[in-house]
Amino acid sequence: MATILLVDDDDDIRELVILRLEIAGYDVDFAVNGKIGMDKALKQSYDLILMDMHMPVMDGHESIRQLRQMGYTGKIVGLTASAMVNDTQKAIISGCDDVICKPITEEFEEQVASYL
After folding, report:
1. Looking at residue 87, which CATH number applies to its domain?
2. What predicted TM-score, i.e. pTM, was given to this entire model?
């Protein structure tokens, strides 16, 4: 099954998403900020990165920009609590392949599967 890197600074959200992904059969690794997530993505191969866009240390926008500048071509999907069009566009401009809005819905696992 696919390996997913979840990058999110919120412990509760991270635990919930990891649980749901593991129940769906995915191997899940995690990072608590964009810097750690970027470092992990450059050292290990993931089928998908789920990246929170607003975090301390390094936010998702900067992490994704740097990954793409370094030649990272893997799938990256932004996670954002904002459903505003401007925030979604900003995530895509940063290098996301797509965006999933939080709170995640019952279709979350289907959304993830569609990216793999």
Report:
1. 3.40.50.2300
2. 0.94
